[in-house]
Design goal:
Helix content: 10-25%
Structural class: alpha+beta
Oligomer: single chain
Number of strands: 11
Distance between the termini: 15 Å
Largest sheet: 7 strands, mixed
Shape: globular
Number of helices: 6
Length: 227
């Protein structure tokens, strides 16, 4: 039997407090995946009728595109995100020759929104100009104001498949992590190339909904209406 909506809401809120890989959230995912089959039954007026439940995440809000361009002649280390630390630094704390952009808005706006509206990411696609980039480790770092750190390395090359026709594209659907002001993604970027990251947003915090007496969580998972 499906869990009630209040239980699901509490689990979603708890997910933002955890930082880990696919194994940490397997049960959470299976429970939500079961609801996908009820998409056709979703009522657009659901949120109006049921105050406090999670809202629907719009299609445009389900992906976050970030590009990293290294214009230097040598490989260069750079950190993206980490809004709490980098938002107010010159050039967002990026080294000379490295340009980070968010084509759908701006990188500065992304950092600002992440501080106020944390996201739960489920899945990453990388598109690179040089396949050697996949051999560069992605390091997820979560640093607290007290100085404590959690680190979680990811090796994109492990997701390369012989069935993949494009050697410059890697899909990592099982990678999950909360993206807030504390989280930073560290890597070294190949010289003269652009790396694109497409982050798939599972859910996000929308504080404006709380002012209306609704849950501050918006999710891409639709729910069956029950009465």
């Amino acid at each position: 039997m499906y869990k009630d909506l209040k239980t699901l809401e509490l689990e979603a809120e708890q997910a933002f407090l955890n930082f880990g890989g696919e194994e940490d959230f397997d049960g959470y995912d299976e429970e939500f995946d079961d609801f996908d089959s009820y998409d056709e039954e979703y009522d657009e007026e659901y949120d109006e009728d049921y105050t406090g439940v999670m809202g629907k995440l719009g299609i445009a809000d389900r992906t976050l595109l970030i590009t990293v361009q290294n214009t230097n002649s040598t490989a260069t280390a750079a950190n993206i995100f980490g809004a709490n630390k980098n938002l107010y630094l010159p050039n967002f704390g990026l080294p000379a020759g490295v340009i980070v952009d968010a084509p759908d808005s701006s990188y500065g706006q992304v950092l600002s929104e992440i501080q106020a509206s944390p996201m739960l990411i489920k899945g990453i696609k990388m598109i690179v100009g040089n396949s050697a980039q996949f051999n560069r480790t992605l390091q997820f770092v979560r640093k607290e104001a007290t100085g404590s750190e959690e680190k979680d390395p990811l090796q994109p090359s492990r997701y390369l498949s012989a069935l993949q026709n494009q050697g410059t594209i890697v899909e990592m659907p099982g990678i999950k992590f909360p993206l807030d002001g504390k989280v930073e993604l560290q890597s070294v970027y190949e010289p003269g190339h652009v790396t694109q990251f497409i982050f798939y947003v599972q859910s996000k915090i929308d504080l404006a909904r709380a002012t209306e007496g609704k849950s501050a969580i918006r999710t891409r998972v639709r729910r069956r209406r029950t009465k």
